[in-house]
Write a structure and sequence with these properties.
Order of helices and strands: EEEHEHEHEHEHEHEEEEEEHEEHEHHH
Oligomer: single chain
Number of strands: 17
Structural class: alpha/beta
């Protein structure tokens, strides 16, 4: 049964045919689901309760949609506010103004809205990140902000979150570990500045957590990440921009200094949404939570695509020396997109998208999608036989 919020801000919901109520100021999840402490108020029984948090997901369509759907799939109940930038074309016109998760999901997936789901209490708010008072108003009373915006918009969001007393902030990371990035990073997109700002606010009461997931499976989808509205500002979100061109059966494989191809962690955006949904209910956030669908060498990744296509790909192997040479040529010709593609390959050889301890995997009760299964499903109907 969808939760209903009364005028006092208390959400009522039914579990096991019993009614429960919780204030939106508590953030926790079922102990028997994820094995975490809850921080429940004294008059609430943990194993029978799914309490609520007021949570905002800010950004454009792609990742925000996966996070919203991940929260919908979770056992916990959340009061959600979805922030859309005024610069984003609404597409569905008046439908986007309806309250409710599925109206946002309809905007993101192209599905028709389901009015009966609006009773969940999910809201869609169109905001202007340059409007400080407006941001403050939209974030008032929010416990958790999950950001999928970057640059100055994210800095404005962080500042507003701190001003209104948001408890937790998840910055728009969702890639490799920040500690492995160089000080001068062409792929940064304002992330370093966001973490510096969050480090200023953390001692003053606003927790933050970096969610690390490696490379999105969606990089290898038909149309690339951009087809899912992910990575629009990265310059390398198109089909074939990173390592693998499944349609034309070509691959550029970077190799580490000692010879083997680089190893990366990869995760589907949908699973990232489910991981983040599980982490929202933790009593305390560490500074970094890592999740991984699969960890494999890039040669193995290409082999998965070759098996799906039924024939070997045209492979180009690169070492750091050849990548540096290609980067210089791209710089001379002022090929910015070419530079970004090469820098992403160099980052792979440096291990920036690889990690061995996926500490969030052990805290969830689902198995991430295998890359081979995802790839086969993603390309179904998009290819002609070789």
């Amino acid at each position: 049964m969808p939760p209903a919020m009364d005028s006092s801000g208390v959400v009522e919901f039914a579990i096991d045919d019993k009614r429960w109520a919780a204030s939106s100021v508590y953030i926790h999840s079922r102990v028997d689901r994820v094995g975490l402490e809850t921080g429940l108020p004294s008059n609430v029984t943990p194993n029978k309760t799914v309490a609520t948090a007021l949570l905002t997901i800010a950004g454009r369509r792609g990742l925000k949609g996966h996070f919203a759907l991940g929260l919908l799939m979770s056992a916990a109940s959340y009061k959600i506010v979805l922030l859309l930038s005024v610069s984003v074309p609404l597409g569905f016109g008046e439908n986007i103004s309806f309250p409710g998760l599925f109206h946002f999901a309809a905007f993101w997936t192209g599905l028709m809205p389901k009015p009966h789901l609006s009773a969940r209490g999910w809201q869609v708010v169109v905001t202007d990140y340059s409007d400080g008072p407006g941001l403050d108003f939209n974030l008032a009373g929010v416990n958790v902000v999950i950001s999928t915006v970057s640059g100055v918009s994210q800095l404005a969001l962080i500042d507003a979150a701190f001003r209104v007393g948001v408890h937790r902030f998840a910055p728009a990371e969702f890639e490799g570990r920040p500690s492995l990035r160089p000080a001068q990073d062409a792929l940064d997109r304002g992330r370093r500045g966001a973490l510096e700002r969050l480090n200023q606010y953390q001692p003053r009461g606003m927790q933050y957590c970096v969610f690390v997931c490696g490379i999105f499976y969606e990089r290898f989808a038909p149309g690339g990440m951009i087809a899912s509205s992910i990575g629009r500002g990265s310059g390398i979100s198109g089909e074939g921009d990173y390592v693998l061109n499944t349609r034309h059966m070509k691959a550029h494989i970077p190799h580490a200094a000692d010879g083997p191809s680089a190893t990366v962690c990869i995760t589907s955006a949908q699973d990232v949404g489910r991981f983040v949904a599980a982490a929202v209910g933790m009593l305390q956030w560490p500074s970094e939570l890592r999740m991984c669908g699969e960890r494999m060498s890039l040669s193995e990744l290409v082999r998965v695509a070759e098996v799906m296509r039924g024939r070997p790909f045209e492979r180009a192997d690169h070492n750091l020396e050849s990548l540096d040479s290609s980067l210089r040529l791209a710089q001379v010709s002022q090929d910015m997109q070419g530079q970004l593609r090469i820098i992403a390959l160099i980052a792979s050889t440096e291990g920036r998208y690889d990690f061995t301890e996926a500490n969030l995997n052990s805290m969830v009760d689902f198995t991430p999608t295998r890359f081979r299964d995802w790839l086969r499903t993603a390309w179904w109907g998009h290819l002609t036989p070789p």
